[in-house]
Amino acid sequence: MLSIKDVEAGYGLTPVLQGVSIEVKAGEIVAVLGPNGAGKSTLLRTISGLVAVRAGRIELSGQPVTGMAAHRIARLGVAHVIEGRGILPNLSVKDNLMLGSFLRPRQKFMKSELEGALEQFPWMSSRLSELGGRLSGGQQQMLAIARALLGKPEVLLLDEPSLGLSPLMTDELFETIEALRSSDRAVLIVEQQMHRTLQVASRGYVIQRGKVVLEGSAEVLRTDGRIEKAYMS
Ligand SMILES: Nc1ncnc2c1ncn2[C@@H]1O[C@H](COP(=O)(O)OP(=O)(O)OP(=O)(O)O)[C@@H](O)[C@H]1O
């Protein structure tokens, strides 16, 4: 579904990703872990076209998207829930949700789609007319995810969704993420909460200084002491 091969990317003169290769198949939740500044967010930004690819290639369901503009990549089915939620605080919850369907201009925003989203996030039903900015941090994060899902993405990129959430909201968020597993969607999640993430992911990659230093099944990574080392050094 999503294939990243030998990708290099960075900002100005600073190289960040240095030959990163990652695969995410449909139906998988794959974790990207690693210390602060390793390049995890840069990896997601490179996939969604917000940061330019300097070398290597990115394919989406076999189609090359390397160097494509971000809006085209989004249209091909990549939804990026950026770090820090990114909802529009002055729009209602419903309007925020409706923005999720803008990628499919020829289709009307179906009532049934909204109902589908609300089934997944039942608490939203009673808050549809409230301003997004009045929701708690965790609820805003769920709203950002619900909005991304309304675009019916093939690939969902989640950047540190638990950042700043209370332990209770974090529990709820991880339950939501686990429920995102579906046979036709690939999810790539960047998280600091290593153990929690490896409970919902099937596989993971550990990035250190812009390189993949460890990869494997979540089960193996959970018990691999090298993962802690990668965080320390
Ligand atoms: N917009 C930017 N301009 C210049 N350098 C940047 C920019 N964004 C990130 N960097 C640098 O790129 C490197 C990788 O940052 P990135 O945010 O991808 O790391 P990360 O692994 O996601 O870490 P964190 O968990 O702290 O967000 C860091 O050295 C960071 O300072």
Automatic annotation (TrEMBL):
Keyword check for ATP-binding: yes
Q: What is this protein called?
A: Putative ABC transporter ATP-binding protein
> Which PANTHER family does its entry note?
HIGH-AFFINITY BRANCHED-CHAIN AMINO ACID TRANSPORT ATP-BINDING PROTEIN LIVF
Q: Name one GO molecular function term.
A: ATP binding
Q: In what residue span(s) does the ABC transporter domain sit?
A: 2-233
Q: GO biological process: any one?
A: L-amino acid transport
Q: Which family does it belong to?
A: Belongs to the ABC transporter superfamily.
